[in-house]
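Listing S7. Sequence submitted for prediction.
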Amino acid sequence: MGPQERTIFIGFGFVAMLIALILVYFFLNMFKQRRLYRQLQLDKLNAEINASEIERNNIATELHNEIGPYLSSVKMRLDVLETTNPQNLASCIDALDKCVTQIRSMAKTLSPLTVMELSFQEAINNYIHNINHDSQLKISFTEIDIVRLPSVQNNQVYRMLQEIILNTIKHAKAETLKIEISIENDKLLIRTADDGIGFDLAKIQAQHKMGLGLFGIQSRIDFLKGTMATSDYLSKGTRYNIRIPITNNILNTVSTNSLNKK
């Protein structure tokens, strides 16, 4: 190889190295931007979920602590009034009773855990009790481990389970739904199974066809930095396996039926 060819070879090598460095910088920068974008999306999601819960709690508290007692006091005053038309008075009292009942129901629906100071297990058991009376879907809820969560996780886990139940009622065409919670490696493990028609989560995600219910479940799992897997066997219904990380300082578990662990 002559001096001229060597110079050309070195020149090509230098250009190739420069191009390689530019490409590496480009891909690293693109990766950094994508990671920053994902973090911004997660921060936005967290802010929206927090804002939604705060608004729900404020409305529920206002209904439960302010408007409800005010209407009850009006009813008490009507009870002691004298009138020449008892039927009109009775109808007013009946209407107030219905208003108070509706307000309490709305408060429980908007924020059952905060207003009533319930754990997600108590709230979901109450919710299931009502569903089992009003729906053909029969739901069972099993606690292998008793777990206490801080308020933020408590609220989000309840909303997540509520979404799963509603999705099952609306879309699964199922007769039964089983929900089980336990602790596995410092994580809250939520397993659900129904006997409905099932669906392919990966396909739905790939086609960007996630409905609001499923999106709500996934959003709350992302908010809690958890993971979700579903069954691939469409003919065997839908199975969720959700893992939510929890720390030892907020975890209080008591094994209630360790023999049932799989």
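Caption to Listing S7: primary sequence and predicted structure tokens for the chain studied. Residues 3-79 form the longest helix (77 residues). Residues 249-262 have pLDDT under 50 and may be disordered.
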